[in-house]
Amino acid sequence: MTIDRQSLYRSLARPADSRILYYVIDGIGGLPREPGGGTELEAAVTPTLDRLADEGSTGLITPVAPGVAPGSGPGHLSLFGFDPLATLVGRGVLETLGIGFELRPGDVAARINFCTLDGRGNVTDRRAGRISSEVGAPLAERLDGIEVGGDVTCLVRHVKEYRACVIFRGAGLDGRIADTDPQVTGVPPEVPVHLDPAAERTAQLAAEFIAAATARLAGEERANGILLRGFDSFHGLPGLEELYRLKAAAVAAYPMYRGVARAVGMTVFESADTLASRVELTREALGAHDFVFVHFKATDSRGEDGDFDAKVEQIEAADQTLAALLALDFDVVAVTGDHSTPATYRAHSWHPIPVLIWGPHCRANGATGFGETACLQGALGQIRSMDVLPLVLAQAGRLEKFGA
Amino acid sequence: MTIDRQSLYRSLARPADSRILYYVIDGIGGLPREPGGGTELEAAVTPTLDRLADEGSTGLITPVAPGVAPGSGPGHLSLFGFDPLATLVGRGVLETLGIGFELRPGDVAARINFCTLDGRGNVTDRRAGRISSEVGAPLAERLDGIEVGGDVTCLVRHVKEYRACVIFRGAGLDGRIADTDPQVTGVPPEVPVHLDPAAERTAQLAAEFIAAATARLAGEERANGILLRGFDSFHGLPGLEELYRLKAAAVAAYPMYRGVARAVGMTVFESADTLASRVELTREALGAHDFVFVHFKATDSRGEDGDFDAKVEQIEAADQTLAALLALDFDVVAVTGDHSTPATYRAHSWHPIPVLIWGPHCRANGATGFGETACLQGALGQIRSMDVLPLVLAQAGRLEKFGA
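^ Those are the sequences you sent over. The predicted structure of the assembly is below.
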């Protein structure tokens, strides 16, 4: 008899009085700017991170698999204890979660691109001339609420510029449907084709939605049609309370992170992108929660900009925020990132991410401070992102012994 | 929904202009000759390996599982990105690939031992008095081309001394057949027994082949019979182009390595066992390929001889070959071995193998040079052999991001 990983932890989880800070510094991992130099984290002055690393245990984590750079969705689901390869969430669902939309199990989501159609219905521009958000937002609103099949509502939300998403809500829906984007111009959009017999009706409803939406866009010069991609059913994920008996809250300034947090049952506190707001909302969250996920975004953004020095500055700001959060009195603190975003690489990368866990029962590391090279000798070793939460639960006295 | 490892990488792979050198120094890993001493690699003077290690990232790799010494087949398949426990290839197939025979999907291969039978058909020597290759080779040739069942050809190739292999080629064959070697003397060979109903006809054809072969050996004093072992169907493996969109070539002097390379779709360049030949063929391969696997054999052979100093010399020769290869201008270079062959152990061993990856986006190691102890603090950590290729693809800009 075999027990799977999720069932193992679920069976061992027990409630406790301990309070946990789960602090994600987005894209914290980096690379040296020049051979022999330090990374962004190694260049930054981070007295609080260094102290926690020295009092606690450090290591390096791989989010998905060696060589694989994760998006924010799988990066965070891994940190929340989910195996990212066993918890595939389609792009339509991720995009919808990412704008903070509250999906319900059974919903089918897809991405919308506004497009330009000529008089014969052929696509002439797959992105509708890259219309601005000012143009796209009211168009998305115009499509919201179309009813199809008598019992299915199509909720449309604007994402950015020529992009939006549609959520089909009703009974018996199935997201196994092919894209309608033909990928080339000069041909009409594809009709929605079901990839599984169970999705036949949903594909018909999607076709009805496209017809109704196109009618509502008639007369628009550039955005007079839509292309649908990334159809996916939202099955729901078990929440952190159900899995780990945690009362979990999220403090995050950006919709993507609030969306992922909500998907795993966290109570979401929408913060401003400031130290004061993060600390104040964390204080508030601690009233009714014992686990607070705090998200710090700017490190990733500066990495994507390719601005090494600005990322160093943001890591220092994240360190100062951490110092202020610690005044709220936690029993266990974890600090890490959802992925690396080296400024020299200007994108999410596959490099393992530094992690530290600070708590009452920590082994000493083989090197001091919090940096990529020091973490090579950390007491946690080189592990998977999904293993961080169980180690935190153990530090917090929240996992029973396995077996007699 | 779950995605398996191979599908994950296949879905993320994208072509790029980058050129990759994949340099396998067979059996490179070793052990100290005396307590406190260095390994063969640590004793060798290897300026090029040391420089690439310091500019790149190092680590240690385990080919199959802790404690398991691999043969050359699984050792190389792991380096080519295959999970060796999910890519079982039977001994008959490996032996056949190992002599450079070009198997086709659907072929069934088995190993042959020539044996001695007495007048009543009982086995008196399971290895035919260990006849020499000079005796064995023409006997194998004598058995080649036997036809059975009207539509199946039995191709026989000599391997070494009393060993050969047979390839059954025809439609509808199935290799799930038990060995005919009785493992003891004084009894007749077993008849081929099918282990699955689908293999019933193939087992009958194997019996026909044995009868015809024994007739052709009548009058031989020692090798007047055959025993068949390791029956296996060859299903074919997906190639590196299909899996990773690599145009892959192999430069190798020995048939075993050419066989494994061919099995994963590489174009094979048969080199002499010299620096000049390896470099010239690699240059030629780069004309139409972007990934070149170069195999260096003598390190393993000297390890199996138990000759520490000779293995040190061969590691130095491998280092000089590497220096010459680098002049051909690669974007990413990986150097490792398919297994360790410590001279003190005189055989393939289970010890993790030093690995280095050199490319544009490398983290610094915690120690300098290329040796087993330094690699303990390498930035790649301690990983599996099958994870080396994905890390190389990432360095080469050949893997997309996973998830939004």
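The CA atoms of residues 57 and 363 of chain B lie 6 Å apart. The radius of gyration of chain B is 23 Å.

Shout if you want it in another format.
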